[in-house]
Amino acid sequence: MRSLYPNAPESAYEPFRLGLAAVTAPEEAGRRLKWVRTSRRDAEGRTSDLGEALFDLAADPREERDLLAPGARAPADLDAARRLATLASEWTAPR
């Protein structure tokens, strides 16, 4: 983008610095979990995580209840989030 618009202000590139990784697991025990991580890349190319969320698409198809929100963290949900995060890392790792 920068090569196409070299005179654009730095703020014009901000939306292109956001990243989203998501993994949806197969339905299991009546739940269909979706894990999402949001990240931002700075001007130097370093990436920082902005947060993660876990949703049960079977019970919450509009993704309104984050199972990782403070006060809602069940041990099984934390384990599921780590498992799905590992899958996302494996799929996106350089080969």
Structural overview:
The chain has 95 residues and is of the alpha+beta class. The protein has one domain. The chain contains 1 helix and 3 strands, in the order βββα. It has one helix at residues 75-92, and strands at 18-24, 33-41, 47-56. A 3-stranded antiparallel beta sheet has the order 1-2-3, covered by helices on one side. The longest helix is centred in the C-terminal third of the chain and has 18 residues, at 75-92. It is elongated, with a radius of gyration of 17 Å. The mean pLDDT is 88.
Strand order of the largest sheet: 1-2-3
The amount of beta strand, in percent, is 25-35%
* Record field, number of beta strands: 3
| Global structural class | alpha+beta
Shape: elongated
User: Could you say how many structural domains there are in total?
Assistant: 1
Number of helices: 1
Mind telling me the C-alpha Rg? 17 Å
Which consecutive residue ranges, at least 5 long each, have pLDDT under 50?
none
Please give the share of residues in helix.
10-25%
Task: Return the average pLDDT rounded to an integer.
Answer: 88
* Secondary-structure element string: EEEH
Characterize the main sheet. Answer: 3 strands, antiparallel
Give the N-to-C terminal Cα separation: 26 Å
